[in-house]
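REQUEST ID: PR-0412
SUBMITTED BY: lab tech R.K.
PRIORITY: routine
TASK: structure prediction, single protein chain
INPUT:
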Amino acid sequence: MRADVLSTWKAGLREGLRALQEQGLKRTLVEIQGVNFCSNDYLGLAEHAGLRELVAQAVWNAGRVGGTGSRLLSGQTEHWRELEEEFAKFAGTESSLFFASGYAANTGLLGALIGKDDVVYSDVLNHASLIDGMRLSGARKVIYPHLDLNALEDALRQDAGAPWRRLIVTESVFSMDGDIAPLKEMAALAAKYGAAMIVDEAHATGVHGPLGRGLAAQAEILPQVLATIHTCGKALGSAGAFVCGPAVLKEHLINHARTFIYSTALPPYFAAQVGAAVRLASGMEPEREELRKRSARLLRALRAEGFDTAGSASQIVPVILDENEETLNAAAYLQRAGFAVRAIRPPTVPSGRARLRFSITIRIGDEELRRLAESLAAWRARGRQVIPITAKRA
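STATUS: complete
OUTPUT:
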C-alpha cells in the first residue's frame, strides 16, 4: 500500500473520531471503578465462589483447553450434547443449540431462518443483533412503534391472506428501557394472523419466570413460539447463548446458521461452567425475589424525584436525560461519587433519548441504591453540572 493512500485512510478515521467527540458520542475503553451499575451479572454468578471452583475443576480435568475447530469439524464433544439437552429441559423446549455469543445466536438464527420472500415484524427498540440478523436475511421488515400492539395488528392485518411467511420478533425485557413485552397478547396476535414468534430472553434468563426460565415460560406461550434465545453472559455469569425450540429448528441451524458453522467451538470445559451456572440459577428464587424488590424500590425513589425512568418494570432502570452532554455530566458526577455508571448515547438509543442505565444486581445493597438516588438528585439540584465532590469510593 502506498504511503499516501494509508495517510488518507488514517486522516479520514481521525476526522470521523473528531466528529464523534464534538457530538459527545465518542466512546473509550475504561475499566469499571466503584459500585458497579453497568454489570448484567444480575445474580452475582460471575463472582460466585462455588461456580469458580467448579470451573477450576473442569479445566483441570479437561483433555484440552481449546476448541480446536468448529463443532462440525473437531469441536464437537459429548459435553456440548449433554449441555444442550440439559438446557432444553431448563428452557422447556424440545432442543437447544449453543452459540458463542448472543449476537452470533441472533444473527445466525434470523439469517438462516427467513429470506427475501418472508416478512418480519420487529419492535423499533429491538437489539442491534436482531436488527442485523433481519438485515442479513433479506426479509421485508415492518418496524412497529415500541410495544404498540395496535400498530403491530394493523401491519399483520394488511398482510392477512398473503402467501409469504410472517414472523414477529421481540425482546422480552428490553435492554435499554427495562420494560417488558406483553408476550401473551403478542402470541394471541400471532395466532390470529398466522405468524410465528421469536423471543429474545437475554435480560430475562435467570431473573424472570419459573426457575428463571424467562418470560415466555411465565406467559405460558412456549408451545406457540418458534424460538427463544437465552444468553449466558448476563444472569448466568458465563458466555454464549442458546437458541431453543423444536428439534427440526436445531437441525436446520446446524446446517444453515453461518455464525455456528464457521465459528470455532468454545473449549469443552466451558460447557461445565454453563451447566453449573444454569443449575445454580435454577435454585436462586430468594435472590430473584430480592432483586425484583430492590429494583422496584429504586424505581419508586427515582420516580418520586421526578426522573423519567421510561416504562421500566425490571432490574434494568434507565434515567432518560435526553441530551448527550447532560448525560455525560450526570455520569461523571456519579462516578466521582463512587458509582460505576456510563452514559448511554446514540446510536445505542434513539437520538434525543440519551440516558443513564442502571443495572441492578443482587450484589448492590439497599444503602447503595439509596445513595445513588440521592446523588442523582444532588447533581440535578446543583444545576446539572459536574462539580468536584469528596466521597468514599465503594
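NOTES: Residues 387-394 have pLDDT under 50 and may be disordered.
REVIEWED BY: pending
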